[in-house]
Amino acid sequence: MSTFKLANTHPEVPVHLTPDLSKDQLLSFPAFKTWVDTLQHSLSTQQNKSHTFHSAPYKLRNIHIQSVDFFGGKRVGFVKLKAEVSNDNGEKLPGSVFLRGGSVGMMLILQPNDIPSNTEDEKQVILTLQPRIPAGSLTLAELPAGMLDESGTFSGGAAKEIAEETGLEIPANDLINMTELALQKASSDEEENLQQGVYPSPGGCDEFVPIFLWQKRIPRDQMKEWQGKLTGLRDRGEKITLMLCPLEKLWRLGGRDAKVLAGWALYEGLRKERKL
Question: 45 by DSSP, 3-state: which?
Fold first, then answer.
């Protein structure tokens, strides 16, 4: 097991690696860099005399890498680590961290085009049904999740399934970042510089998920066809399948997924403030 010192830290922060992980691999893992930068910036805000911890500020003392999962050979996918964050009085903050980085959630709303466009009537939300072994589920209903590619277009497994089964592709210029809209006036982020996303499990994981909105009006017959087709896909045993959920029932049918509840709350809140 090797150790190196994290650059630009005071006091110096030793990082203890596992035998299968090199310094270069860890430092090239975007989630690690983002986490370190975000944490160090937050710790620096303790210099402000009004900060709760100003009189006994906490410092990052060391990092122990406990395990790593590789994707596709030697590309770092997940990192589990223990960070020691303490003050000079010996008081510690919980520091068990599962690093995986950010993703995106998509709230995709369809509406028959024979309905007036200024109403919420008959709107349907596309949900994915897929195995989520960490949750102990084989058919968890959730907002489609994935990433934005270099052009800003929604991509990943859920995006591929949506394109294959409905022909819908979601280009960047049609997306509305609801999280960014909602956080424009959030005072708590002005100092801490957190990521512009929802943190589903901040007590143990760095994952942040910005929620994007995409709305499309389609012919009623097309919507009925998709409803029947998507139901049939579940009968065929597809690993990732889709369903259409009435917007007014979204909070109930998707209530186990943090992305669903965040998307629904953002959508309703932004509509009330007439930002959508």
Answer: helix
SS3 68: strand
Nearest to 21 by CA among 47, 3, 5, 43: 3
Which amino acid does the sequence have at 266? Answer: L
Q: Which parts of the chain register pLDDT below 50?
A: 186, 189
The residue behind tokens 């992980």 is: 21
- Predicted pLDDT of residue 189: 46
Residue bearing tokens 């009925």: 224
Phi, psi of 119, deg, nearest 5: -120, 165
Report the SS3 class of residue 27.
helix
In single-letter form, the type of residue at position 14 comes to P
Cis peptide before 11 (omega within 30 of 0): yes
Q: How many residues does the chain have?
A: 276
Phi, psi torsion values for 216, nearest 5 degrees: -145, 140
What's the pLDDT at 190?
53
Q: Extract the runs of DSSP E, i.e. beta strands, from the chain.
A: 3-6, 13-16, 59-71, 75-86, 92-93, 96-99, 104-112, 124-132, 137-142, 145-148, 154-155, 176-177, 211-218, 241-246
Cβ-count burial 29-51 (b if 16+ within 10 Å, e if not): bebbebbbebbbeebebbeeeee
DSSP run (H or E) holding 190: helix 188-192
Radius of gyration for the chain, computed over Cα atoms and rounded to the nearest angstrom: 22
Tell me what percent of the residues of the chain surpass a pLDDT of 70: 89
Token pair, residue 18, equals: 């596992």
